[in-house]
Amino acid sequence: MPQGEGKREYVRVDDEFSVRLVKRDDKSMKNSLEINTSKSINISAKGILVNTDEKLDVGTVINITFIKPNSFDFFKGTGQVLRVEEESDKSYNVAINFIDLTPEDMRTLDYYIKLGQK
Fold first, then answer.
1. How far, CA to CA in Å, does 70 sit from each of 9, 15, 47, 88, 94?
2. 10-115 has which fold?
3. What pTM does this model have?
4. What are the tens digits of pLDDT across the range 48-74?
């Protein structure tokens, strides 16, 4: 087992699917930037790593929508950008922490993620 992996509360798996990100204008809350070119790299019940063509700043709060892995249910939540790494193709890998999930929401998302490991 890789070092530190045993400390994870929730399973993190590599899974690629489309992710819709919407960044809202902090001042007016009326304007928004919809980012449709995002694909997941990995996911857990605590957060998601996505690849996108748009550079996001650390600390940015965004709305996130995707179909939960191994289901037909939509996930809709809010996340905060924790880390941004530029790739050689000028895209960005963006680590996002979910910030508005209840413990029940996290358990449900973790359940669907675990289904893909079997």
1. 20, 10, 17, 31, 23
2. Thrombin, subunit H (2.40.10)
3. 0.80
4. 999 999 899 999 999 998 887 777 888
